[in-house]
Target: beta-glucosidase
Amino acid sequence: MGSTSPAPASLPPDFQWGFATASYQIEGAVNEDGRGKSIWDTFCHLKPTRTKGANGDVACDHYHRYEEDFDLLTKYGAKAYRFSISWSRIIPDGGRGDDVNEQGIAFYNRLIDSLLSRGIVPWVTLYHWDLPQTLHDRYGGWLNVEESQLDFERYARICYERFGDRVKNWITLNEPWIVSIFGYSTGGNAPGRSSVNPQSSEGNSATEPWIVGKALILSHARAVALYNKEFRSIQNGRIGISLNGDFFEPWDAQDERDREAAERRMEFHIGWFANPVCLAQDYPKCMREQLGDRLPKFTDSEFTLLREANMDFYGMNYYTSQFARHRDESPSINDYLGNLEELQENKEGVSVGEPSGVHWLRSTPKLFRKHLTRVYRKYGKPIYVTENGCPCPGEEKMTVTEAVNDTYRVRYFEDHIEAVALARSEDGSDIKGYFAWSLMDNLEWSDGYGVRFGATFTNYDTLERTPKQSALLLKGMFEKYTEPRKYL
Ligand code: PNW
Model:
């Protein structure tokens, strides 16, 4: 027998893959079947506009077209589909004493049953940013740590009770970092509170994001602890959270201060949430040092709750990476980065990756592999990549005929899936699934309908859907790593 070569990069046969979406970005039908308003309905209708004139009133009209959309999933060969539930369709006023809306339950039952009949595994996010407006008006929403966690726990209970016989994969929150920082520091997302944004009339960027962060952590923890105590043994599912966060390299690799800044940036991005939710530990030290008393403390009983909230997986939303350069001055009171600058080029002028169709995203697959392995080693949970994707350069202005030829996205997916396979096979990181963002072009929040992240083209005049090449090629990209390999 000849020499043995290293095992080729591979993915296990039960690797989950598919596409992801979120309720407000695709559903539309905002006034139908008893749905209550969310903070995104309000935010999208503010004047002057803060969402480039766009709103989710119709969006992709997925509420009425879900069968057609699931036909696409079938055509693409997806094994799994990640979607989110609109809290205010289930409980229009959101609170633990408020009524459940049976028509909202019925809609999500239709989605779940349709997916299962097609052999597609549903992955359900409980909260993808659409807080019931009533809770915001009633007590300040996520600014009220004590009230919001109890209302979220009750909402989670209803979802487990009504859907948990068929839904075995739960994600509590999508990107609590974006919820806290964009919603309460920069004010770019709903509810748009900020003391530094001229468009915001209310808010305190120095304090509110850190309070909201704690409310989200404890809400997540209550939902997981409840699942563990009352549902896990009967329903036998999995539960986790989806955290965003870029990988950071030092701007000047020779400078110790930049190396520390890169690590600090990741602690402010990911450790903020991952320390408490994965490790039942306090916030990272560097956050305490910089933020002092503005960073809320956890009480002993809250630490007990965090320990009871042991979860199954880390959901990773990954789009891009950056360089971090330290600052010599002391941080502003509104700083949330860790006192540093974020840059897309390093000291030598080398770009972190190839530019996409949106300024904040460059394609960085090698750093994705580093990121996967760093997160796996630090937080010790199996990883599901719950979002990864991009808009192609110039796609915003393309016709459908041009847009379906999405070679940049095809390469982006290929390179990032290869990074997953390498992180598994070569680094030993346990990665169990991958969801492309997104099934179709949809409402890109404050960027409106211009930026297109879809693997399917959406014509917003006719609501016609057209598969892009990447959607049709994704299956083969996974098979390349999962097929039994032939000897050469
Ligand atoms: C995610 N950033 O948000 C969200 O989960 C999706 O709903 C969204 O459509 C998708 O990514 C694409 O943007 C992010 O500026 C938004 O770094 C912005 C950033 C990261 C994630």
Summary: DSSP finds 16 helices and 15 strands in the chain. The CA atoms of residues 39 and 215 lie 17 Å apart. Residues 22, 25, 174-175, 178, 244, 317, 319, 360, 387, 437, 444, 453 surround 4-nitrophenyl beta-D-glucopyranoside (CB under 6 Å).
